[in-house]
Write a structure and sequence with these properties.
With 206 residues, the chain is mainly alpha-helical. It is built from twelve helices and no strands.
């Protein structure tokens, strides 16, 4: 089966399972989403959602967050993995937004990627989910699935992103990103997976 035909069929299955996939990280606006995505590195979304209410009760805007000390931020997020570096980046990120962007999150991929602690994946999530701008954030779940289903050679996350962008139209990227994450978690785990019984692996891995 050609990759394009395979992608179309996968898309139909994902649309049936997750017609309107919710954003798993709780947030109020672009800034709180940006902070939540930054915090999700090597930490589950469930854990992030347990921690962010206390953090955002202390500060939910760049101006307010920049006024907090690094120690105060760390105290609120200590149970997250890599908490010290994340606290440091949240503090620097907030100050940069205040100093360089008037306290607003820029609607620009390149600008987002220059912010402390913000990589390409985080910037892609914010562009797509906060601003509705086509971007395909590829995390380890999506990278693994694309390789498993032979939608990409899987040599790098960057290559997987390029391949998926060719297979799915831009208006679907934001939705597909979320659908693939949910499918990977619920139906297609990395280990102990029965591929013959899987809705997609049963035919897409061939």
């Amino acid at each position: 089966m050609k990759r394009a035909d395979k992608a179309k069929r996968i898309g139909e299955i994902l649309d049936e399972l997750y017609p309107t996939p919710p954003i798993p990280l709780e947030h109020r606006d672009p800034f709180t989403l940006l902070v939540a995505v930054l915090m999700s590195a090597q930490t589950t979304d469930v854990q992030v959602n347990k921690v962010t209410p206390a953090l955002f009760a202390l500060a939910s805007t760049p101006h307010a967050m920049a006024k907090l000390s690094e120690a105060e931020i760390l105290g609120a997020i200590r149970s997250c993995g890599l908490a010290p570096s994340k606290a440091r980046n949240i503090k620097k990120l907030s100050q940069t937004l205040v100093d360089d962007y008037g306290g607003t999150v820029p609607r620009d991929m390149e600008a987002l990627e220059t912010l402390p602690g913000v990589g390409h994946k985080t910037a892609s999530v914010v562009m797509s989910q906060a601003f509705g701008t086509p971007a395909f954030a590829v995390d380890t779940h999506i990278h693994r699935l694309a390789q498993r289903w032979r939608l990409s050679n899987g040599k790098s996350v960057e290559q997987t992103e390029r391949d998926l962008k060719k297979l799915f139209p831009p208006e679907e990227w934001g939705k597909r990103h979320l659908q693939l994450i949910y499918f990977g978690r619920e139906y297609c785990p990395a280990r102990g997976h029965d591929s013959k019984a899987c809705l997609i692996c049963s035919w897409a891995t061939k």
